[in-house]
Amino acid sequence: MSCTLLSSAYLLDRFGDSPLFTSQLLSQDLWALENGCWQDLPRWMTTSFGCSYACVGPFGGVITKGQRGVLSRSLPAPPPGYIKINFDGATFRKGRELGVGMFARGNAGECLAWILKKLYILGDGEMAEELAARNAVLLAIRKEWPLVIFEGDCDVVISKILSPKSDISVIGPKVIDIRLFISGFHSCSFQFVSRAWNVVAHTLAQSTTGSLEGDSVFPPAVAPYVIADLSS
């Protein structure tokens, strides 16, 4: 099965008059994309993959770069019963403010929850990423999701969470918190993904708005990226 990736222009043309975009409106498109392959990429992704490129994507799927603007991939959806949460962190005002973003979805590609938070504390990019991971875990606990896959684009933080060694860095105590929290899940994993596969969480984290959260209704600012991210 193959299908065309819906571009941001198409989304804005189809739903641009609506103040909010809902995952239900796009559920059929998402399901098709989840099981299909890309034939046409939006401009932001074409730019990202403008050179020869190959990497291991989410859940071990191999992403290979062919001719410009075309990718082939094998990216299975989360297993039935699992929730996938992407997270990302950002810094503002030279580290005087931090932002975190999280985006959760189910096996059918539906949006289950999203959060963006502005934290008025000092910190660097690594601390922002760690706080994003911690908040993603707390989201899963609050929602009582027992089977969760967490994805982020900071391999340093993910490696620290997965490492059996003690972490004596500044974020060490928070890493210990995360390890304790995830021990309560029936099944849980942390996986590194590239920024291209984490664009919705990244966009939420970069938002200059205060702190917001929702479930099946997501902010228009991330709508152009949601289709591409949900199809990964």
Automatic annotation (TrEMBL):
One of its GO terms (molecular function) is nucleic acid binding. Pfam families: RVT_3. Residues 86-207 form the RNase H type-1 domain. InterPro entries: RNase_H-like_dom_plant, RNase_H-like_EbsB-rel, RNaseH-like_sf, RNaseH_domain, RNaseH_sf. This is RNase H type-1 domain-containing protein. It comes from Sesamum angustifolium.
